[in-house]
Amino acid sequence: MCTLHFPVQMQSDIRTALHVAFSSIGSLSPFRRSTLTLPPRCLRPAASLGLLSRPFSTSASLPDKPSICTADELHYVSLPNSHWRLALWRYHPPPQATPRNHPLLLLSGVGTNAIGYDLSPESSFARYMSGQGFDTWILEVRGAGLSVQGSNFKEIKESANAVSEQMEAVAKGVTNGMSPVQQPNNVSDTLSDSEISHFGQDSIGIATAWDESKLVSKLTEILMRLSERLSGFLSDGQSRLISAKLFDQISNLLEGSELSDRLEEVRANLSNLLEKQQNSGITSQIRDLSQRLVNIIEEGQRSVSPQFIDMQERLSSTIEDFQKQLDLIVKYDWDFDHYLEEDVPAAMEYIRAHTKPKDGKLLAVGHSMGGILLYAKLARCGFEGREPELKAVVTLASSLDYTSSSSTLKLLLPLADPAQALNVPVVPLGAMLAAAYPLSSRPPYVLAWLNNLISAEDMMHPELLKKLVLNNFCTIPAKLLLQLTSAFRERGLCDRSGKFFFKDHLHKSNVPVLAIAGDQDLICPPEAVEETVKLLPRNLVTYKIFGEHQGPHYAHYDLVGGRLAVEQVYPCIIQFLSQHDD
């Protein structure tokens, strides 16, 4: 087995190439227009009805199951106190398969959906496991794949079909040589007005006439949202940080003028109000100060100085752009703890209710972040003295601590700065990879090395790699990445409070674990996997690296969808799960 080191020069090359990829899809600056396409609009919140206790469809042949879903059934799970409906892809064992005692839950990596586990009939981890007798379920966490928001069955169905159509349109567009950001009309129709204007080429028109009352109302609304809805974003001080960004933009419009001092006075008063608890009196004060701010701009507009030409339009544009950034922050407002504390438990409870294992336990396999979720669950339950309700766990390319490795994920470390997370509230991973795909798969192969982050040379059929790149990745909240970057700091991954470090409690687990690494995995190298493996009780952990010095080699996704996985990796997993299922 070989250990692969990631040179500093290649890290520099990656940054350069990512810049190229970003350039091909537009800037992510909240105050610039770009042409990114985000996932279809989530339906507006409505009263949670606790519905969807039945499968979305009962077989793959029924016409109402989205065409992108290749499972036997598609189920939806309601989350308590949330409008999210999580998608569960189910694969039934054939009648002739060996009967099993426990269902199997599959968890995917960050920003990915169920397709990675079911690329094709010949390369399907999920189908293979069900063929071995395991009732297999793939969870798509909130924001991934066919998981959507909605209040009734009809809305869920319509939204899921819209997601499916968009995913297929992206793949078809790239195949036909069309830019991945040039979407058909029926796809753009599914986006919210805010997203179209922020990420599309056609922006919302800014009125040329000075509409003072409208502008005051819009500015007041933004400031109220900063105080009311965003106070819990990232940490207690972030609403002040993001409001400061807005004020900076407005201040730039008046820079060097005699009105600057008056603006600073209003700014200071508004900042103080944003930190206070909301009540009707404060609401009135915020509106009054918004009016004063607009009045200052209006006075500058009446000035003969060229500096104030089109001042109202520039202020309106600044406020509109800032509004869109707030919309993204609110829409993509979840982190790793939401997955751990809400999504995974809800899915496990649902699966237990439908499969009824005698001991109430599940088997679980997690790839990348999916494995990190399983490690975190074992650690949390060990700390609290609770039963994790897992019979055995398999992790593929996962770790709680990347500090000792040369993982390419260290490129995410700049997002550890909350200010950067606010500058870029989401990372459209799917759009980025789709934009970069032509440069990595066609001459002159400028970004060909990007493929090596996913699959080692000759380990995945080109068509399957293409499907994986174009259909498997989603948009990631910066808030989620912000928490995951703690895995690159001392003591490893921690919860959102920054006080609970999962690796400190992993030794308390009583669940058998098979940890698997790929010898050429640049995202989660073997040394990162080993860093977590050594924390588990020795009698409960089995560790294996796949790949040979002379080849074949395994990169990040080869453990799941590589051409040799069905011969080398899958049987190893089956042997481990079968042993503990019995």
TrEMBL record:
Keywords: Lipid degradation, Lipid metabolism. PANTHER family: LYSOSOMAL ACID LIPASE-RELATED. Residues 338-544 form the AB hydrolase-1 domain. The lineage of its organism: Eukaryota, Viridiplantae, Streptophyta, Embryophyta, Tracheophyta. GO terms for biological process: lipid catabolic process. It comes from Gossypium darwinii (Darwin's cotton). It holds the Pfam family Abhydrolase_1. SUPFAM superfamilies: alpha/beta-Hydrolases, Apolipoprotein A-I. The keyword Lipid metabolism applies. This is AB hydrolase-1 domain-containing protein. The keyword Coiled coil does not apply.
